[in-house]
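Q: What structure does this chain adopt?
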Amino acid sequence: MKNKSAVRWIIQITLLSIAISVVFTLVSTEALSGAGYFAAFAVLLVFILIGIVFDIIGVAVTSAPEAPFHSMASHREKGATEAIKLLKNSEKVSSICNDVVGDIAGIVSGTTSTIIVAMLVRDHSLSNILLQLLMSGTVSGLTIGGKATGKIVAINQNVKVVLAVGKVIRFLTGFKKGKRK
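A:
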């Protein structure tokens, strides 16, 4: 029975990864087509930030204790019930946040930086290799430094982070149902 569940999860996570990758790539491609440098760098920054934010969520969910959320839920704190669901599924939440969204954001930010380098080389006849090195180093540094900082925040403020995510989920599910909670 556990094997069927594991296989089902692997298939679901693979299909989810494909879908998110397609969406991220489509958004990036559409945003970059005919875009100027400012817009291109903004798109790049957005994908770097997406990777960092989802890494923070994944780490916070795996490190947060469940007990404070039960207390919050008993006091009807908005988002606490959703936070408990996140914590009860921390392995899957972490996989989705860190591995799926985080990795895809990293791949798309790398692709986006390559497109920006191609734009700069085309428009300014600059050295391709030098720009690639500079861009790759900058994107890597921002991503790794951002995630390192984010991990500190996620571990030290895990309850606040998970509750904030719970509130967002509550808002979005209430909005989806046609009512805000």
